[in-house]
Amino acid sequence: MSSRQVSALIAEDEPMLRAQLRTRLAQAWPELAIVAEAENGEQALALQRELEPDIAFLDIRMPVRSGLEVAEEIAGACHVVFVTAYDEYAVTAFEQGAVDYVLKPVTPERMAKVAERLKQRLDRPPADLATVLAQLEARESGGPLRWIKASLGASMRLIPVDDVHYFQAEDKYTKVVTAEGEALIRKTIKELFEELDAESFWQVHRGTIVNLRAIARVERDYRDQPLIILKQRPEKLTVSRTFAHLFKAM
User: Fold this and answer.
1) What strand order describes the sheet that includes 100-104?
2) pTM: predicted TM-score of the whole model, two decimal places
3) What's the CA gap between 164 and 231, in Å, rounded?
4) pLDDT digits over 186-237, tens only?
5) Cα separation of 65 and 58, whole Å?
6) φ/ψ (deg, to 5) at 116
7) Can you give the three-state secondary structure of the chain, one letter per residue?
8) Can you tell me the distance from the alpha carbon of 58 to that of 66, in angstroms, rounded to the nearest whole number?
9) Mean pLDDT of the 18-33 span
10) CATH of 7-138, one of 1.50.10.10, 3.40.50.2300, 1.10.540.10, 3.40.250.10
11) pLDDT digits (tens, 9 = 90+) for 102-135
């Protein structure tokens, strides 16, 4: 690897996760220059073409154009690192294709490994992404849960998953909370978590799953535990010790 400064682009639509990624990179590779940050695929593509960074960290699921579409467009122009929620299928595809990836939430250990691998690869041409992209695109077409059929009194209603602020276990039911109100479904938190988009919904307590897009900020309580403040709801969500590590870099 040459002595010139290496540059990178971060593309991630969630501000909190983008900040976490930036923090982990700074810890693992202080000399790396983050030359730009994008919040959607179209922006990432434009910035990559303009600035020509050595490395692009691409969230697989982004608005306008996905990370997979961006990777296809810039194949061969720079080294690509995919950012994704945990998925055994995706990890297998990455490892078979020797393509770098980091899982959300990003751990210091994983980022350190990726940084070392990238340093060793910078003097070689970027990896061929064709096979990996084909496998991941096939997987993505299935998609996560998009609608919830919930009870509201004596009636039923369809709630778009994107409108849900959080899910909370309540006796034999799970409470579905939106800006407008609450409804109940007969599905456990565990079942829901397996069906939801793990890049947008995080489990923060044994009985609570929160939509990252509904979070206004994260504060600390008197025990120094993370406390979630929502954008359109007055209640605060407690993060249990088991899941507190998710918010360490935020």
Assistant:
1) 33-38, 7-11, 55-59, 79-85, 100-104
2) 0.62
3) 12
4) 889 988 998 898 889 999 999 999 999 999 999 988 888 899 999 999 999 9
5) 11
6) -65, -45
7) CCCCCCEEEEECCCHHHHHHHHHHHHHHCCCCEEEEEECCHHHHHHHHHHHCCCEEEEECCCCCCCHHHHHHHHCCCCEEEEEEECCHHHHHHHHHCCCEEEEECCCHHHHHHHHHHHHHHCCCCCCCCHHHHHHHHHHHCCCCCCEEEEEECCEEEEEEHHHEEEEEEECCEEEEEECCCEEEECCCHHHHHHHCCCCCEEEEECCEEEEHHHEEEEEECCCCCEEEEECCCCCEEECCHHHHHHHCCC
8) 9
9) 95
10) 3.40.50.2300
11) 888 888 999 999 999 999 999 999 988 888 888 7
CB 140 within 8 A of CB 87: no
CATH topology assigned to domain 147-247? OB fold (Dihydrolipoamide Acetyltransferase, E2P) (2.40.50)
- Both tokens of 198, joined, read 């793990």
Rounded Cα gap, residues 203 and 146, in angstroms: 17
Strands 236-238 and 226-230: antiparallel
The number of beta carbons lying within 10 Å of the beta carbon of residue 142 is 7
